[in-house]
Amino acid sequence: MTQHTPRMARLIPLMSSVSGQDPAEISQVTGEVLQIVSDSLFRLTREHPRFRAPDSFLLTDTFSSEMTRKEANAFLCACFLEYRSGKTDVWDNVVFFTEEVLDNPESLWQEIVDHTQEGWDERFFDYNLHPEPKIHSRLYTIATLMIRFYAGDGRQIWIGYEQDPESVYKRLLLLRIPRSIACLIVGTLKDLGIIQGPFDIVGDIVDSRVLGRMICGDGSGITPMKARRLARMLSPEDPWDLDRPLYLIGSTWCGPGPKCRACLVKHACVFAVSEELGIRPDPVFRDTLFGKKTIQKTLKQWQNPEIYDS
């Protein structure tokens, strides 16, 4: 049997006996879990370089903190094509499309809207940017909005807002892209040193599943908004610091069919410990984590205990 830390061993009986009628008991469990998960994730980034290397290491040979207009547009194009999907080599596809097909144009977005929507859709197989037609088609809408709002220059999204990640995020949402992609772009710009300041994790289905299992013992029912809130509690100074380890845990071990035995953070995961010991965290623990005022106060108290000490 896996050797658990003393702290986690002390948490196990509380997990199995917590009662919805005892807010103090729930508060104790909540604080314990958050601290354990936070410590474990940050230990992972310290001890394993792979978990602290940002996604942008893929870009180091191509992009820099001083992007040209062409580089910025190519970078954004790859992000809009969901480079984390794992369904295709997005970077290579974008490079081939911009340099070989379009002959390295000054205005990538204008080249796209020079098609009609129907004409663009018909070039799905010719351009081979993404295996899903809906993603290919969405790029046309984004291109029209890039021209309308930012004159076809991706740098205008962040120039003047380098110290304000939240504003960059809101400016990206004007392009009608999914919130998870907007978060990923802001985080990658942080990794590249183009913008500074704390920001949220992506909060996609992977992050939600990992945080749901580690903290609640159940990977379902954690929305992107709830996942981002949890990440803020785990890493108040900068939630983005946890995005890379959460993504790698979710894509390596914590998939729809979890591989808990191989996972490096199984000792700090409510789901993994519960499965190993044959117990289930009481449903009230999951159901009330976000729903009751007393629990919200508990989570805030863990993050800023001095506020409640007086």
UniProtKB/TrEMBL annotation:
An individual GO BP term: DNA repair
One Gene Ontology term of the molecular function aspect: catalytic activity
Transmembrane segments: none
Coiled coil start-end: none
Superkingdom of the source species: Archaea
Name of the protein described by the UniProt record: Iron-sulfur cluster loop
Record organism: Methanospirillum hungatei JF-1 (strain ATCC 27890 / DSM 864 / NBRC 100397 / JF-1)
